[in-house]
Specification:
Elements (H helix, E strand, L loop, with lengths): L3 H27 L7 H25 L5 H5 L8 H12 L5 H8 L11 H33 L9 H22 L10 H22 L5 H25 L6 H26 L9 H17 L4
Amino acid sequence: MISRKEFITMSLDLNLFFLRIMKEHSFFLETGFTPRDENMGEKAGMFRQRFEQLLSEATALANGNVSANALNSRQITTQFTLEAERLTNFYTGIPFNLDLTRREEMLQPGGFGMQNARMEAAVENLDRRAYNLTAELVMFKEHLLRSVRSCKMFTFNYPLLIEHILREARHFMDMLVMLVRRESINRSEDLLNQELFWNRQMAEHAKFIAGLLDPSEEDLIETARMFGSEFDALTAEAEQATRQTMDIAGITADSRQETESLRDFKAAGTKGLLECKIQSIILPLLGDHVLREANHYLCIMGVC
């Protein structure tokens, strides 16, 4: 059973990261539909707006209650987020709440926020509403994935990308359930399962990057494919470790080192997209999105 303070901080850390991720998942889906399925794009846009509202509420609760690790890790916003939103708005015409991003950039860590019963109730209410909204988004993604795989609908998003973001939404929901039960989501004994999950996500990030770069970017494509292969191997090691009694310290060290390298690759790539130095069909916000996920994973492994 975690304390009230731990519940508030863990919940707000989790929501600040994942509500923005869910908001952007909705946006990526929104931009991928053809005119025939305009109604699907509108539904995705509604999800984007609803997650943005929840993120705004989480941000209001978080000042003075968010952990220093969550802020220092740059998993909530990065040095690129604001400009990535501006440029993505320019490319797509879809608006972003830049003031919300600025508010998040100004958040202060725990130490002076309210941590009384009233705050605990407000945070639990946020957790429950985040769970319910994410459950709705999961149903939307499941319907979309079935339709795409049965050739009843076309989208410019890879089927694997839809499966990928569906997996992340379910992961978010699982952790919200644990928090509402007052269970810790940072237990050392759960680290291997986190590594198994996030190594797979990192592998797919690399593969998506390789597939969205312009064919002329041969060196970047080769590097991205290399990361994909290396994280596939790390995923297999973590999966094997979950079935056997073994020391995971070596796996964690390898995962940490490889994720730091991938994080640097993503950061350089996002910077290149913002400066128009990389040819691709990658929206700048997608670059920043996957960078934040690498930062989040590194923080799980103790690099905050």
